[in-house]
Amino acid sequence: MPPKKKKTTKPDTSRAARPVVDKPINVYRKIAFTFVGIAVVLLVVIFYYTFSNVKISVKSMEEETTIDFIIRIKEGGPTTGSQLAGHILDVTKTAQAEFESSFSLTGEPAQATGMVRLMNDSDIDQPLVATTRLLSPDDVLFRIRESVVVPANGSIEAEAYADQPGVQGEIEPTRFTIPGLNTSRQLEVYAISDQKMTGGTKAAYQVTAEDLDKAQIQMIDELTIQASNEFKSTIPADVQILEDKILTQVTKREADAEIGDSSEKFSLDLEVRIITAAANRTQLTNLVGDLFRNNIPADKTLVGLDAGDISYEIQNYDPVEKAVHVKASISGQVSLRSTSPIFDKDKLIGLSGPEVKSYLENFTSVLGVEVDFSPFWVRTVPNMKDHIEIEIIE
Q1: Count of domains observed in the chain
Q2: Lowest mean pLDDT among 72-76, 310-314, 350-354
Q3: Cα distance from N-terminal residue to C-terminal residue, the chain
Q4: Are residues 382 and 295 in the same domain?
Q5: Do 214 and 322 reside in the same domain of the chain?
Q6: DSSP strands (E only) in the chain
Q7: Is the pLDDT of residue 170 over 80?
Q8: 3-state secondary structure of 368
Q9: Both 228 and 97 in a single domain?
Q10: Are the C-beta atoms of 366 and 59 separated by less than 8 Å?
Q11: Distance of alpha carbon 349 from alpha carbon 387, whole angstroms
Q12: pLDDT of residue 1
């Protein structure tokens, strides 16, 4: 009996058996797609933040600022820091002058005076003695000062004065009768004034404190000019004298009248110590300019400086050191720096263009703002500060 053949089994390749093999492939495929999606998102985010930029252009207002500082000028130097080698003037000057009292009290009565023409329309000379009365139509009485003879059919001039002091004597031009003559003679001999009588009041002069102070100021000015001119003749031509505020000290003042004295004039004797300094003009200007630049506020930058418009004032003098301390004042134009606190980038991050403009234009130093984003899809200020550019337009 022949041996039996063994049966061989073929693998089942039917559709029902495939899912067992495909399941892990689908899982891996989903994981791969997920990683690809995340990578794409990361790339987009990285691209966005890498290429997002904003340029903020700011039109800054120029502001004028004045800065004061103290410099020292020392006879012979040395020149170092805020000290300059220079020349010192320390001199004492004296003067004497006469002045009028400017203050006057009006209203003190006085006798009005004026010239009159004494007329004689008759054929007989008419003698008139001093103090002969002349009467105006308003009964204001005048008298002639000297005796005269009025010639027949002629006239003569004479000075007349009011009988009583006061403004009532200041009458307009008129015709006078002469009461001392009889009635018929008064028609032939009379007086005429062609101008108004004056002097019914007179000024009473009085020396005041203001008079003395004004006289002192005038004399000090004259003495400082004199001393300054003498000083100029002893120093080089390129040296500038600080003439804006020369230091003066009155060491003696004597007047021949006291405050309240009734005097039309008074005399004043004055002794004045005059102190000033001089330094090389270029060195002085350069020093003041450098001090200005070094003292500009940290958030401002220099736009312009008028080095020719500097004022000086001597503060004090050290006679031992032969040095003066001088306050120098100089003005310049400054504008904002991009590092100013108002451009704090932390406050700008996340703002839109209109919000940036609104925020910055609230500051008085800002005249206008332009905001440019890039690329085109960027609409707010990026989070990275180094992607924020601030430009100051002067």
Answers
A1: 4
A2: 310-314
A3: 118
A4: no
A5: yes
A6: 53-60, 63-75, 83-100, 104-109, 113-120, 126-128, 133-135, 141-144, 148-150, 154-162, 175-176, 189-192, 201-205, 239-241, 247-255, 265-280, 300-318, 323-336, 366-374, 388-393
A7: yes
A8: strand
A9: yes
A10: yes
A11: 10
A12: 46
